Description:
By secondary structure, the protein is of the alpha/beta class. It has a single domain, classed as TIM Barrel, CATH 3.20.20.140. The protein has a 7-stranded parallel beta sheet with strand order 1-2-3-4-7-8-9. Strands 5-6 form a two-stranded antiparallel ribbon. The chain is globular and about 50 Å long.
Amino acid sequence: MIADQHVHLERGPYTPENYPDAWLDRYLEQAARAGVQRLGIVEHAYRFHEARGLLPNAWADARCLYPLETYLEFVERSKARGVPVSFGLEMDYVPGAEEGIARFLARYPWDFVHGSVHFVGDVGIDLDEHRPAAAALGRVEIWRRYFALSRMAAESGLFDVLTHPDLPKIFGERAEEPLDAEFAATVEVLRRKDMALECNTAGQRKPVGEIYPVEGYLTVARAAGVPMSIGSDAHVPEDVGAGFADGIALARSAGYTEAVHFIGRRRIAEPLP
């Protein structure tokens, strides 16, 4: 069995008062076409009123539009339908916000929580409108701080998976220096905290044109015994399972023979197809 462990519903035809079952069904139909047997749904936590302030900038605050209660009602309804879906959140890690993040996550017994680093300070490293600010910081500083934040996210113990783990390359601006030491240091924290690393195929659909992370990062993680999950990071039904053949091939090249998914914060390993 293969699970697409990183799927977003957020661009759907719903309002804050209504998540239509038919929208999730479109994802499930695409999953079947793509040979994916299970979905891991993660809404971005910053979309909910209750997460306001957990990202300290106006970009995030402007997007806190939905009540968490409506999402939870949809989760419960979907579980009652018996669909092959696990439900979680993609939670941004921000240093100093750990207590607030923990309180927010405690509002519901999620199946899993993705931990993501999207911001270095106030700079959104995957936001096109923030590219001038990222350039002002410089690539060396962006990559250095990104990996430091990734290790802090893992150390927090709040998350099950570290997502798109070399995200600063999204616009094709790769690190100017070798990253082997950063890979090794981050993998050691993941190993110690019993956290998984994500193989995220969305990078193929971004300007960089390649999967997150590079094979070398996955290889170090596999050698350390760090589990791997695989996700498309789909935001529309058509992208469910996108790039999975390449993602699975990359994972196998790095030495992985299985991928994990989650039910009730319990990690389940399945052989790669």
